[in-house]
């Protein structure tokens, strides 16, 4: 793995609503190297998507980045204008969403959508565009790519559509891709196929990837490192082995316990009892304390990061022992 080319430092993204300030992302820091997949995991509402959208420069009113830094190859992105950020979006940082129909236009053939994506940033011949599209479709394992170029999105299965979206993300040779729950709606076999192709792409092209999900089991197969988020804050970050095999934070342990066993068909996801606190009224301490079996008085105090190894950090006063 190379040195990190992408860094997020103490990022805070808040929404200033009539009800009050929603602190969706609070003091998040992480880095990404080429050829690395960082998984961001957490329950619904933990701030995963807002983190992704902050990186893409796509936080709209009433929200904005309140403080912190997002840097790509040393260049600060948070101070760029919307127009300046356009150069980065798609070209250097691409994003893939859960629902391919959010990205694909149902009225346009795949070819025209792919050509349009290239044309926004580059002026190349139709022959070169065609070759690049075929290459991108092949890279995500789409059979008969020439035929697919002619198709409309509704003529393809959900899995194929999602592969086309990932192919579009690859067209401009980005440095990194942010994927927000890209395989959640797909069945497990199709998910596994897409993950296989993604991992190959990352390894072969040295892409960086942030994979946002609520599903730890997908990350165990795909991610190099995992960041666990809860109520806008990082609870634990470490290598996949450190998180899946050696989680120390009580929230990560609960998340791991909620993953259904693969050996028991039909078993439902175990819910973590209780609800996430309102992001409008967060105290200074650990946001998980109200649902945590190990919580004590001290957990209402600000929680410092504890370094467990060069790669493993937790924010907890009462972590599990090794
Ligand atoms: N435009 C907005 N205005 C107000 N609050 C917002 C806005 N967008 C997001 N939020 C709030 O920010 C918090 C974090 O949302 P986010 O979508 O990042 O969570 P998430 O972890 O990605 O959840 P999910 O898994 O459901 O997508 C939520 O409480 C959400 O209500």
Automatic annotation (TrEMBL):
GO terms for cellular component: plasma membrane. It comes from the Bacteria. Keywords: ATP-binding, Cell membrane, Membrane, Nucleotide-binding, Transport. CDD domains: ABC_NikE_OppD_transporters. Residues 6-256 form the ABC transporter domain. This is Dipeptide transport ATP-binding (ABC superfamily). One of its GO terms (molecular function) is ATP hydrolysis activity. SUPFAM superfamilies: P-loop containing nucleoside triphosphate hydrolases. InterPro entries: AAA+_ATPase, ABC_Ni/Peptide_Import, ABC_transporter-like_ATP-bd, ABC_transporter-like_CS, Oligopep_ABC_C, P-loop_NTPase. It is a peripheral membrane protein. It is found in: Cell inner membrane. Belongs to the ABC transporter superfamily. The lineage of its organism: Bacteria, Pseudomonadati, Pseudomonadota, Alphaproteobacteria, Hyphomicrobiales.
């Amino acid at each position: 793995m190379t040195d990190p080319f992408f860094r997020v430092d103490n990022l805070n993204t808040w929404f200033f609503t009539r009800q009050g300030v929603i602190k969706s992302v609070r003091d998040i820091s992480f880095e990404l190297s080429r050829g690395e997949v960082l998984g961001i995991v957490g329950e619904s509402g933990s701030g995963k998507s807002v983190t992704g959208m902050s990186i893409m420069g796509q936080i709209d009113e009433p929200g904005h980045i309140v403080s912190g830094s997002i840097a790509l190859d040393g260049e600060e992105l948070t101070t760029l204008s919307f127009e300046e950020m356009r150069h980065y979006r798609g070209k250097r940082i691409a994003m893939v969403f859960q629902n391919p129909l959010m990205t694909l236009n149902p009225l346009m053939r795949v070819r025209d959508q792919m050509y349009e994506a290239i044309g926004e940033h580059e002026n190349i011949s139709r022959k070169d565009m065609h070759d690049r599209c075929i290459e991108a479709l092949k890279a995500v394992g789409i059979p008969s790519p020439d035929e697919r170029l002619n198709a409309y999105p509704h003529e393809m299965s959900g899995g194929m559509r999602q592969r086309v979206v990932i192919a579009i993300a690859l067209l401009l040779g980005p440095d990194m891709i942010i994927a927000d729950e890209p395989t959640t709606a797909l069945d497990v076999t199709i998910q596994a196929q897409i993950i296989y192709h993604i991992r190959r792409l990352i390894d072969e092209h040295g892409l960086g990837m942030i994979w946002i999900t609520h599903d730890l089991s997908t990350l165990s197969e795909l991610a190099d490192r995992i960041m666990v988020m809860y109520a806008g804050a990082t609870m634990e970050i470490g290598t996949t082995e450190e998180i899946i095999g050696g989680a120390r934070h009580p929230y990560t342990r609960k998340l791991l316990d909620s993953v259904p066993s693969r050996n028991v068909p039909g078993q439902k996801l175990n819910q973590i009892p209780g609800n996430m606190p309102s992001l409008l009224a967060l105290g200074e301490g650990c946001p998980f304390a109200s649902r945590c079996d190990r919580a004590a008085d001290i957990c209402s105090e600000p929680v410092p990061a504890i370094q467990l190894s060069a790669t493993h950090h937790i924010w907890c006063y009462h972590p599990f022992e090794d």
